[in-house]
Write a structure and sequence with these properties.
The chain is built from 12 helices and 5 strands. By secondary structure, it is of the alpha/beta class. The chain has 3 domains: 86 residues, Ubiquitin-like (UB roll) (Roll); 64 residues, no CATH class; 87 residues, C-terminal domain of DFF45/ICAD (DFF-C domain) (Dna Fragmentation Factor Alpha Subunit, Chain: A, Orthogonal Bundle), CATH 1.10.1490. The longest helix has 41 residues. The N terminus is likely disordered. Its main location: cytoplasm.
């Protein structure tokens, strides 16, 4: 990549806010670093730096990652620093380049790419778009989705959300806090379960429960021989959800809100057969998932309410400008 200095000196007394950008021609990998205060200046520098014939003007600037045409100065100023641009001369059409990165590969009909890498990239971008539409949806994300956004390079996430790196760093810190809070809740629940188990042993309750469970298991085994195949075929949960239910200490904290809803709607008998659990344990897990889902929805409603209150407070000063008051009679 070649870095080119600013062309032309500013007028005396003129103050310009320059945005660093990366320029290249179509079908080219060679990039040039430039700084411009507006789109017109960037177009002019593109002609000079990329040696574009003046007869091929006008120059159209598009985002290198997906071919979006940038023809508005306000939008240009909102883009992050070092955004990649492709300069198109006359009627030239944008073409995807492997060095662009971003989401441009989605519009490409066919080219070789590693399936695992593309799937991971698509996943974090889909989650990022959810946050862009509504930041409070952080509450509804699964632990896996939270970790995916935390692991994304700050510059890539900033480009996707059209925010500064400092803002995105703060967002990733918040995501890490949410993830840590869920881990703390899981550990607290695990400690509580250990404490309850200790109480059961002291009160000789555990032996009675074992006897009842043994009798129940024999009954379930007898019933399963006739209907287990039929019930298991009714399970609609994915293997990923079933694995989380089996292996996680507090699975309700690991699942997304959508997955929690699926678990709560599942038939307890069918779920018990699929997980090889007894009915009581299955119902307890479904109840925990239902409580976690209700808590998240309540948090979402609280955030929306606070947002509405904040919006009303912000509009209040404008409404109270030049208030009309009745004059008091001096007598």
């Amino acid at each position: 990549m070649e870095v080119t200095g600013s062309a032309g000196a500013p007028e005396p007394g003129e103050i310009r806010n320059l945005k660093p950008c990366l320029l290249r021609r179509n079908h080219s990998r060679e990039q040039h670093g430039v700084a411009a205060s507006c789109l017109e200046e960037l177009r002019s520098k593109a002609c000079d730096i990329l040696a574009i014939d003046k007869s091929l003007t006008p120059i159209t600037l598009v985002l290198a990652e997906d071919g979006t045409i940038v023809d508005d100065d306000d939008y240009f100023l909102c883009l992050p620093s070092n955004t990649k641009f492709v300069a198109l001369a006359n009627n030239e059409k944008w073409a995807y380049n492997n060095s662009d990165g971003g989401t441009a590969w989605i519009s490409q009909e066919s080219f070789d790419v590693d399936e695992t890498d593309s799937g991971t990239e698509l996943k974090w971008k889909n989650v990022a778009r959810q946050l862009k539409e509504d930041l409070s949806s952080i509450i509804l994300l699964s632990e896996e989705e939270l970790q995916v956004l935390i692991d994304v390079p700050c510059s890539d996430l900033a480009r996707e959300l059209c925010q500064s790196c400092a803002t995105i760093q703060g967002l990733q810190n918040t995501l890490q806090q949410v993830l840590d809070q869920r881990e703390e809740a899981r550990q607290s629940k695990q400690l509580l379960e250990l404490y309850l188990q200790a109480l059961e042993k002291e009160g000789s309750i555990l032996s009675k429960q074992e006897e009842s469970r043994a009798g129940f298991s024999e009954e379930v085994d007898a019933v399963d021989t006739g209907i287990s195949g039929e019930i298991s075929s009714e399970i609609t949960l994915t293997s990923q959800i079933l694995t989380a239910l089996k292996e996680k200490t507090a699975p309700e904290l690991s699942l997304s809100s959508q997955d929690l809803e699926l678990v709560t709607k599942e038939d307890p008998r069918a779920l018990a057969v699929a997980l090889n659990w007894d009915i009581k344990k299955t119902e307890n897990v479904q109840q925990a998932c239902n409580q976690e889902l209700a808590l998240r929805l309540q948090q979402m409603q609280s955030l929306h309410s606070l947002r509405n209150i904040s919006a009303r407070k912000n509009s209040l000063p404008g409404e109270l400008q030049n208030p009309k008051r009745a004059r008091q009679d001096p007598t």
